[in-house]
Amino acid sequence: MSQIFTRFALLFSLIFSGSAGAQQDLQPFKITADTPIISSPAQSTMVLKDPAGDITVHQALNRVNEFVLADKMEPLDAHSQYWIMQRISSDLTDDREYHLQGPWLSIYTYVIRSDGSVTVLRPAGYGYGYSPLSDIDPAKAGSSKISSASALFTLHAGETVTLLSHTKSLPTFTRSYILRVVDYAKFLETRRFGLYVEGALLGILFALGVFGWYSYLLNKDRTSLLYGIWITLALFQVFNIYSHDGFHFSEFIVNVDGIGFGEQYLSNILYSFPAYGQLVFFFLFASAFLQFARYFPLAQKTIYACSFFFILVFFHNVFWRTNIPANIYYLPNAILPLMICIIIFRCGMLRYRAGMKIADR
């Protein structure tokens, strides 16, 4: 019922606000046979800043003359939300399905066609992506009625559509207003290689995890415990890692669509927690294995300090937003692990030359 009301209200806004005429001023991005599978319609994108995140779709349509071309917008503010308007047209001879893609926490899109009809797409972005198809038997009657995990829309041959999206940025990572247009059917085939690589990594880490926990059950030592925790977190990190087609753990295993926590969505936290966790526990395992506390107390304190720093970064990501670009914000995340690995390698060589064979219990 709410979607029917939304469509009616949008149609009313289009007729009486004059926004339909303003949309015509935005030149459409033409999709031809030479268009890449993933394309960025930069010159066919306009943006309206929504500082408080309270501008409704009807208000956005009534304020369409306030939209600014994306390349003339001020730098993106992580504390604001945005309405993004794009126009695309098809020069193809067949109908195709598309979806919008970009590093945003949430994307709510309305497809406005030339006849005034409106299609409200399912939410997209890093906070969404669970596949209802993972819960059903595709051979059973009615399975074809289950919706896709992607926010799909059909672009008919020769058609021009306007895409109006309400977006919430992913802090530090969202630096562009352009929502990429993705050819769904062709893009779907490109995920195969990623799934094979992910499957291989999961198999290797699972085997290492079994070895680690078996070793701990036999020896009951701190080193084996830290190793088991490290490998288990690494396993979950690979399972949760965001690939070119989403978070596979929250796509196939658990439905956490739209569940927010702090400034993030749970699907993003399910990735970042094991990512930071496995880094911290690798440092702790290596220091325990080489007995840093006994032989290299300064290096041990350095590892504790770095581990505490990564824990702070994780909580900062969850509860605060920042406009610092990712290449600057995450620079310590690149430098510190490298520095610690050099320290571990150096200390390991010293322990080896001192006659160390295996870690003491």
Give structural notes.
This protein has helices spanning about 1-15, 20-25, 55-60, 185-220, 220-240, 250, 265-290, 290-295, 295-320, 325-330, 330-355; strands at about 30, 40, 45-50, 70, 80-90, 95-100, 105-115, 120, 155, 160-170, 180-185, 240-245, 245, 260, 265. The strands form 4 sheets. Strands 1, 3, 4, 5, 7, 8 and 10 form a 7-stranded mixed β-sheet that branches. The protein has about 350 residues and is an alpha+beta fold. The chain has 11 helices and 15 strands. Helices cover about 45% and strands about 20% of the residues.
Question: What secondary-structure arrangement, pairings included, does this model have?
Answer:
Layout: H1 2-16, H2 19-23, E1 29-31, E2 38-39, E3 45-50, H3 57-62, E4 68-69, E5 81-90, E6 96-101, E7 104-113, E8 118-120, E9 153-155, E10 160-169, E11 180-183, H4 184-219, H5 222-240, E12 242-243, E13 246-247, H6 249-252, E14 260-261, E15 264-265, H7 266-289, H8 292-295, H9 297-319, H10 326-329, H11 331-353
Parallel strand pairs: 1-5
Antiparallel strand pairs: 2-11, 3-4, 3-5, 5-10, 6-9, 6-11, 7-8, 7-10, 12-13, 14-15
Helix pairs in contact: 4-5, 5-7, 7-9, 7-11, 9-11
